[in-house]
Amino acid sequence: GDSVTQMEGPVTLSEEAFLTINCTYTATGYPSLFWYVQYPGEGLQLLLKATKADDKGSNKGFEATYRKETTSFHLEKGSVQVSDSAVYFCALNRDDKIIFGKGTRLHILP
Amino acid sequence: DAGVIQSPRHEVTEMGQEVTLRCKPISGHDYLFWYRQTMMQGLELLVYFNNKAVMDDSGMPKDRFSAKMPNASFSTLKIQPSEPRDSAVYFCASSPPGEGKETQYFGPGTRLLVL
Asked: Quick check: A101 and B100 CB within 8 A?
């Protein structure tokens, strides 16, 4: 069935470092792809999305490009901040549902 | 505009007791989802509704879990009897018409501990 695999965490970086969180997917057809973020003590919230191949989603300095040839949707940010510390979930949609990866915890050190 | 509202925020109960979790979706949203989050399993979809009708409950242990949506602004997830393995954070999420598979708005969650 459809699934999402993302790199295991935790990922620990210093402030202003470059961030990459890898995500690959398995799906029939061409689903939309998402990154959701969960800040401590809160529910998930949509960070960005891409609905077709070669689309780039972006928000708050984060970017991810829908790569059909490598079935990937890696999350990147050029300069992370302490406030970016959170759990990041890669996801895809199927029917009326969203299928989430297991999440990657990100720690940013000041 | 109020987001998804869940209550209680925290619940501690003893094994065998009944637990009821409540959710109020965002007004106008017609999709409602219940998820369970644990360290081991991650985020699991238990059940979801569209226009108050159950669309898929294949992720929900039906011997002890039940979910209802009596009206468009209220849903419950009931566990009876509760077991320690039910300890988790339970999230409710809602989506606007036509966006069930695009954008979901999550509530703050209910942290359940079953002793």
From this structure: no
